[in-house]
């Protein structure tokens, strides 16, 4: 019989809250240090971080600032974000995991402040999390407005119906397109100019499913209801139109598969290079 102690749901929630609070205090410390170094940024740092009571409020305010336009003032966006987080507190767990993914996988970012304030990939993902909740709740017009603003401001186009897990890193983000029925598991890394596109005119499942630990290189195009297996790597510029087995690399146009070639966790190590393999042994995808 298993005699190990088990956490109650309240204890799990408490643990998650502690992790989020730890990141919030770290973010505030980074903002205070940055303000000392760059007094000209005092207004930005105070308004977005230092005068905010918690991570949820700060995130709502920052997304409001970045997404605001003639049709949506920042205050309305911020209120919408806070209402969604209040209805679905688990969104903050995803925010925490996404911030963690950036600072662990991007050597150009050693601070939480950088993705939180400046990186459009992070902002695009968090905007999608709000839009997805609205889409599922039947508020599809508001979800589409947020999608439209995110597309214009962050140069990403993520349909609010797409299902996206936690710990997602979208590096550089420009040109990323993710379709309505796409599914992305936890702990996935995606570089710029990637398309997770559909095929056909039917309304069912028509976009890719990306399993955990996958890295998709810059400019890769993946079409149709195919599955990219866990811990696989899609090389930059590849065109993929069928399933890629787990722990494999797909490379080329059309893509060829190197079975069992991917490193242990491509999404985390972000290794863009191919191993020394004989290309004559590749299996064609299409």
From TrEMBL:
Pfam families linked to this entry: SATase_N (PF06426)
Acyltransferase as UniProt keyword: yes
InterPro entries assigned to the protein according to its UniProt record, in alphabetical order: Hexapep_transf_CS, LbH_SAT, Ser_AcTrfase_N, Ser_AcTrfase_N_sf, Ser_O-AcTrfase, Serine_acetyltransferase, Trimer_LpxA-like_sf
The enzyme's E.C. designation: 2.3.1.30
Xref: Gene3D superfamilies: Hexapeptide repeat proteins (2.160.10.10), serine acetyltransferase, domain 1 (1.10.3130.10)
Domain Serine acetyltransferase N-terminal: start-end pairs: 23-127
Keywords: Acyltransferase, Amino-acid biosynthesis, Repeat, Transferase
UniProt GO BP: cysteine biosynthetic process from serine
Keyword Oxidoreductase part of the UniProt annotation: no
GO cellular component: cytoplasm
Entry similarity comment: Belongs to the transferase hexapeptide repeat family.
Descriptive protein name: Serine acetyltransferase
Source organism: Pleomorphomonas carboxyditropha
GN (gene name): cysE
